[in-house]
Amino acid sequence: MNLPPVVDVHWGQLAPAITLLATAVVTLLLALWQKDSRQVAATALLGIVTAFVFNLTAFLGEREALGSFGLRFLADTPALAFNFVLLLGAALAVLVSYDQLPRMHLDHPEYYPLMLLSTLGAMVMVAAGDLVTLVLGLEIMSLAVYVLSAWRTRSRQSEEAGMKYFLLGAFGSAILIYGMALTYGATGAFVYGDIVAALDGGGLPLLATLGGALVLAGLAFKASLAPFHQWAPDVYTGAPTIVTTFMTVVVKAAAFAAVLRLVATVLPQLSPWLLTALAVSVAATLVIGNLAALRQRGVKRMLAYSAVAHAGYLGLAVLGTGHGGVEAAIWYLTAYTLMNVGAFAVLTMVVDSSDQGDDIERFAGLGQERPWLAFALTFFLLSLGGIPPLAGFVGKVMVFQSAIDAGYLWLAVLGIVTSVIALVYYFRVVAVMYFRKPEYQPQSFRSAASSLAIGVAFAGTVLLGLLPGWWHGALFVVGQLPR
Fold this sequence. Notes:
Elements: H1 11-33, H2 37-60, E1 67-68, E2 73-74, H3 77-103, H4 111-127, H5 131-149, H6 156-187, H7 192-200, H8 205-223, H9 231-238, H10 241-265, H11 267-270, H12 272-294, H13 299-319, H14 325-350, H15 366-369, H16 371-385, H17 391-405, H18 409-435, H19 448-466, H20 468-478
Helix pairs in contact: 1-2, 1-4, 2-3, 3-4, 3-10, 3-14, 3-19, 4-5, 4-10, 5-6, 5-10, 6-8, 6-9, 8-10, 9-10, 9-13, 10-13, 10-14, 12-13, 12-18, 13-14, 13-17, 13-18, 14-16, 14-17, 14-19, 16-18, 16-19, 17-18, 17-19
């Protein structure tokens, strides 16, 4: 009888993911006995910080063994760096939800465990070294987010968002799994390295190319790249704002980390036209996201289309893989997490307890009524628009440079043009806050936890822009990230 080979398991590499899993179990049990969701949130935040420490320990270590389970779960520098982004986004989302859940009467016991499980799935996606692990992480992440997006059960808009996300997400997953089946049929392998080796040895390149195209399409759905972006504005708008805060950063970071690894290892071996198709998708995303955002009167929906546009900018980094694209993507996602969570955190302080009132007129006079919120939102919007010397500006310079070095000058030019367009709708909100008289009574809600999240996001957005060399040193010297 043939026994399966012994697979090495390096538990230190799995410590961040196991910590999140254990914390999800503890928070669920605690929530069943504890009616105050704030204590559950504090426990979830403690677990995220502990996972962050384990990840930092692995990042600073020697990393002699880069993978567990036969290189199916990778612990290389890009995976660990992306984990920092995921954990940062999850921690800020917990802070934003801390006081908002009781205020909106949404503090059901499953909320924080689902958020932790979704982050766990995202970490598995980031570390996936084969297609099976990739789809496992994708489904763990997605199933939790499907539920969270429909969290306001008495809201038709929220229920519709959850149903749309579930149906279209299932469709995207089916495309991805079918692509995996074709790739396996052509190469006899799921592990990325084995797929490349099989293609070098002959294989069935046409069938493998078709499989790779379907895998890329399935991931493009999660990354909200055109033409697979249609779900994003509706789901982001319909979901509770505190959930949208989490979705726009954690789901996007995991999707782009997976796409980056595929582009860096597998796709170039399949067919050059796959990269061309990806470039066309990135161009369409830049144009559609920014032009659609121009037409929005609701700030939340405007930020939703802005998130689609930023997927296009991240796509430039993906195309620049091998030319500084990995570094640019990590930087951009870090900056995007800070400035996007900050903008949505301010939005949660402006809307009412039923999560309504995000029309741009609601922001009129905010600069006089609540100057701290208006000042923070101004900085986040300026950073999203790429105004120096904030983090968003440095991120856009890096993704444009990586695209140019990879031979996509036309895409970089398109990115610059669409960035100018984006300034129109960002500055429109700023102008309303400072140069129009208030038409509505501003919300008097105050939250120390949300203010802390806004403060952390604000400080990170400014410091990443003013001190970019520090992050470069962390990636190149400490993490040994290849250029």
